[in-house]
Amino acid sequence: MELHDVWFVLIAVLWTGYFFLEGFDFGVGVLTRLLARNRPERRVLINTIGPVWDGNEVWLLSAGGATFAAFPEWYATLFSGFYLPLLLILVCLIVRGVGFEYRAKRPEEKWQRNWEWAIFWCSLIPAFLWGVAFGNIVHGVKIDRNFEYVGGLGDLFNPYALLGGAVTLTLFTLHGAVFTALKTVGDIRTRARTLALRLGPVTVVLALGFLVWTQLHSGDVASLVALVVAAVALLGALGAIWRVREGWAFALSGATIAAVVAMLFLSLFPNVMPSTLDADWSLTVTNASSSPYTLKIMTWCAVIAAPLVMLYQAWTYWVFRKRIGTQHIAEAAH
Amino acid sequence: MELALAPETLARWQFGITTVYHFLFVPLTISLAALTAGLQTAWVRTEKEVYLRATKFWGKLFLINIAMGVVTGIVQEFQFGMNWSEYSRFVGDIFGAPLAFEALIAFFFESTFIGLWIFGWDKLPKKIHLACIWMVSIGTILSAYFILAANSWMQHPVGFRINKERGRAELTDFWAVLTQNTALAQAFHTLSAAFLTGGAFMVGLAAYHLTRRRHIKVMRTSLRLGLITVVIAGLLTAISGDTLGKVMFKQQPMKMAAAEALWDGQKPAPFSVFAYGDVDKGHNTVAIEVPGLLSFLANDDFSSYVPGINDVNKAEQQKFGPGDYRPNIPVAYWGFRWMIGFGMASFTLGALGLWLTRKKFLLPRHLRTGDDEVPLLVLFGKRTLGPKLTSWFWRVATWTMAFPLIANSWGWIFTEMGRQPWVVYGLFQTRQAVSPGVSQTEVAISMAVFTALYAILAVIEVRLLVKYAKAGPPELTEADLNPPTKIGGDHQDADRPMAFSY
Q1: A4 domain residue, yes or no
Q2: Where are the transmembrane segments (chain A) (predicted)?
Q3: Is A309's CB within 8 Å of B112's CB?
Q4: Which of B96, B127, B188, B238: CA 20 to 30 A from A136?
Q5: Domain ranges of chain B
Q6: pTM for this structure?
Q7: CA A50 to centroid of chain Cα atoms
């Protein structure tokens, strides 16, 4: 295995980490309107992800930074090509982050309601757009001989990519509902379970459709294995939430996300961004990658830093392991 | 007209706007993290309530500020790919590495431990909770270092070779990129300026409260801490600025000649205090100068030769081919002056403040003030400032808050615009760096969106800061004074409302 293959795997791992973690905080963001009935409940939802969402988002920054360093051509083509959708994602991430931090900084109801709507939309839109982006990456886009994206904005919103968006949106929302059931007590916990069970069948149908399409388009044996794992994990997650095994359900909905990401990257390899105009113009792990020296340095950094990151982030989840409910929200701090 | 709206122009404006905006929050974040950590350390060691209240007050302002720093930082990472894809292709092999290091090492540190710190007041034992804010502080400093190393490579590329086949620069020595003199000097200068910024912020707010005789105890402590920070950081900023200047005279003679509006080389060269230049004609119509000072700043020698704009332009034309290698001279010239002027002004006010509020053995007994009195402003010996001067002094001290922010912004505008037309000095020009596939409309949309969004957020942020700054330090509760002894919180408090969360 050469270093650029290692980095293909590592970037897949970073995206997996990102979607696993920010997946549930996007989901919780969507649930603030879907599940919570009043301000204290919305506050409970936000507090379940309060200590961790910022750390979750860094997985995206790492995936972006690692792509820049390990596959500069990919980074350049991807982000200049998907310009406007990416702009929308960035705006959402900005507004959402500020929303979490500023929502409770003023007591007025209107102020808080505005931020709640901002958090809802700015969680929903990126959750959808990331799926659209990955749909396009996997199926390929119009890339010319200079590795420039020459398609238009409309080309990005094709049926396959839109289905991908619907999958990430429902999957993340489900993941968020399971997380909420795991992290809360009382009425809100019961309703989160119910919601997860209702959302479950829709997610299963969408995800299976998307994965089978992917498999037929560019799959191999390995991606088929990932597909099966994703399907089993998703059904397992629903079974676990049905039987009130919330820890298991969360692990399994996370495993579903991991398997979906794995499947996408497996069906992509050795391309990183195929061209639909001419297969020779596709970006691959070899023609998009950095020099071996840079990859070596980066590998050392990742080998040392990544386990440490996982260790202290896991510790964070341990520190905040207690379930919370409306009784933990001070009267003055709704 | 067509040129004014070229994608390159818009992309440059966008980069300038988003970067200067981002950098309003960065220095405050770096310094307030460390100062808050210092105050919390003082509390843990002495158990004096004044330090805990100060920690909570400055910590809150720090959080309001870091939220903006974090979210505007995300844009920074992705706009290289969005607007500057050719740049990314050309330098990704080198420039991407420190960026990835920043994310993998510094950002994770910062963002994970900030969550622990915000929500950890009733979940973590005192010392572990304190360690969290220190981790945040270390994270911010590391982050600054990596990004400055990347920027320094654009100012002075080292440790690379050009791969003709792939048409890009490739890294050959990462250590050289991280430790070259430009990176060290820039990091030293930027970090000390960051502490000057945080110190002045503290001084300004403390002065605001002290004039109104509110929260005197906490604000007295903050005032002294702020003043000391301003004076030390101010000195370091000046020293490191001089070091960085000397490095730049060698590596980017054009930038420094532009900073001085020195059109033709001189021996000895004077330092220009004020000049009114005519860029087209290449000379200054009005100039006030200090003889020999520029020679000293450049080479530690009052009579040495310093090349001018025209000389360097000619030399670069010979080296790189025909073209105009001059940056925008008025921006470089005035940017340099605003940076130094506002930086020095805050240092001077800090030094003056430290002298005027000195206490104990240096003053006669009847002039000394107690912990819960506003400090007297004692000029020397037995002379205090009259009430009018005193109120003016507090007012100016409050304004000082803004000075380093202005200096920082101009410092960056100067250092980035002074490098033009190069994006990587001597290697790659800015006009080559833009994304060829991105249309004028797309860049215009994103620039409009970011500008509008940033403007709205600025209003929201400043109003929140003002609200919390005016409210002053919070009263302490029972829970604040009895932190948990176990990780995860003590059992009997299971249903207690969470402390100090959002």
Answers
A1: no
A2: 6-36, 82-99, 119-140, 160-183, 195-216, 222-242, 249-269, 297-320
A3: yes
A4: B96
A5: 2-252+327-481
A6: 0.92
A7: 17
